[in-house]
Design a protein that fits this description.
The complex is a heterodimer of chains A (295) and B (106).
Chain A: H1 2-23, H2 30-51, H3 57-77, H4 83-110, H5 119-147, H6 160-180, H7 190-211, H8 219-241, H9 244-267, H10 272-276, H11 285-290
Helix pairs in contact in A: 1-2, 1-9, 4-5, 4-8, 5-6, 5-7, 5-8, 6-7, 8-9
Chain B: H1 2-18, H2 27-38, H3 41-50, H4 55-88, H5 93-104
Classes of the chains: A mainly alpha (295), B mainly alpha (106).
């Protein structure tokens, strides 16, 4: 009964997100669309708070209050022109949160209080750590490029592509170790935990290297793409926790964010590949980044 | 697990259909709004921080809860602030959008 009510509340919040996104496509209805989407979030949070078995209320309320205060303060005080760079930070926090949720779940399994860890669990945890952490560091770099503490021009150095390739291989190895040791976990916990930490560290660097070669004028597209990633990271965390709200809404916004990213590229007469590989293309790379008379 | 996979695939199709024609002036606010929705991971953070038993998982979950809440609360508020400008200057939304594009291209 309880889980049925929670699932229905999650369904309602997903429906509100869909209506919200629909209404955000016209200037007249956009503000109510945002209000509907925030109502959807409230429904999901309240349902989780009241219908699941919260063990530590002070911690939960403290976390919500602390995060809420910081969020309000940042959103209220930011200059109009600095809003996109603040959105980049928020998005990075969302990705980080998904990675941490999976980390917490891994720690929970490691403590031996929960059973049923298998290769599938390892895959979903690894995915949300990978996507969430890339989103986090990529978004922080995007913030730097938008606000000016990192130069807006594409940064490249000899061996950038080789280093990125090596990091991808490293991430793949850490991912593989996590899956390989899934059966032995948590009796043998050390390889799993070290591989998870290694995956997080590799993904952190990967996010940096993927964004620094892209020019500052293209950052809104990058933030939109990373936003799509953070939706997917939330969906992956949903697989870890077996939580429908995260799977439905995370996937929904992951896919919608991808469409929006493509629309933004089209508005600039560019392809997504052109934006992403702008600084990567060797000889013709910088030229591709300079086509557009922006910034 | 199989049910979750079915939900995932259907939600992905829904997500690709929900956005059709977005005027360019709304690109940044919509990106911001979508970012706030991707903060749904706050639900996962609530589960991780409030329903786990070990000290490690609880404190990692607490960290997740704080950053996820910043994303959600700040995200919806900042989107609302962006969209407020459209209500005031109904006549010239294009100039509002242009201002934002300039800001974001800095």
């Amino acid at each position: 009964m309880k889980t049925a009510i929670i699932d229905l509340a999650y369904l309602l919040s997903a429906v509100l997100f869909v209506f919200g996104l629909k209404r955000m496509q016209s200037p007249v209805t956009a503000r109510t669309g945002n209000a509907l989407a925030s109502l959807g979030m409230l429904v999901a949070v309240v349902a989780t708070l009241f219908l699941q078995d919260i063990l530590s209320w002070p911690l939960i309320l403290g976390g919500l209050a602390l995060g809420g205060l910081i969020g309000v303060a940042l959103a209220r005080t930011v200059e109009m022109t600095a809003m996109p760079e603040l959105v980049a930070v928020f998005n990075g926090f969302g990705g980080l949160a998904s990675a941490l949720v999976s980390g917490a779940e891994l720690a929970q399994y490691a403590s031996g209080d929960v059973y049923g860890f298998g290769a599938v669990t390892a895959v979903t945890i690894a995915l949300s750590i990978l996507i969430g952490t890339v989103t986090f560091s990529g978004s922080i770099i995007a913030n730097g490029k938008l606000s000016g503490w990192i130069t807006g021009s594409p940064i490249s150095f000899p061996g950038l592509r080789v280093l990125t390739g090596l990091l991808l291989v490293g991430a793949g190895v850490a991912f593989g170790v996590m899956v390989a040791y899934a059966e032995a976990f948590p009796t043998l916990a050390r390889p799993m935990i070290l591989a998870a930490l290694g995956l997080g560290a590799t993904a952190l660097l990967l996010g940096v290297l993927l964004v620094i070669p892209i020019g500052g004028a293209d950052m809104p597209v990058v933030v939109s793409l990373l936003n799509s990633y953070s939706g997917l990271a939330a969906a992956a965390a949903g697989f870890v926790l077996d939580n429908t709200a995260l799977i439905v809404s995370g996937t929904l916004v992951g896919a919608a964010g991808m469409i929006l990213t493509v629309l933004m590229c089209e508005a600039m007469n560019r392809s997504l590949a052109n934006v992403m590989l702008g600084g990567f293309g060797g000889g013709d790379g910088p030229a591709a980044g300079l086509d557009v008379p922006e910034g | 697990m199989l049910n979750n996979l079915i939900i995932f695939v259907l939600a992905a199709f829904l997500g690709t259909e929900v956005l059709t024609k977005v005027p360019q002036t709304l690109h940044t606010p919509l990106m911001s709004g979508a970012n706030a929705i991707s903060g749904i991971t706050v639900v996962g953070a609530l589960v991780a921080a409030g329903m786990t038993t070990g000290p490690w998982s609880t404190w990692i979950g607490f960290g997740a809860l704080v950053v996820a809440t910043i994303n959600v609360v700040g995200g919806f508020l900042v989107t609302d602030r962006m969209l407020k400008m459209f209500g005031k200057k109904e006549a010239a939304p294009a100039s509002v959008g242009a201002g934002q594009t300039n800001g974001s291209a800095d």
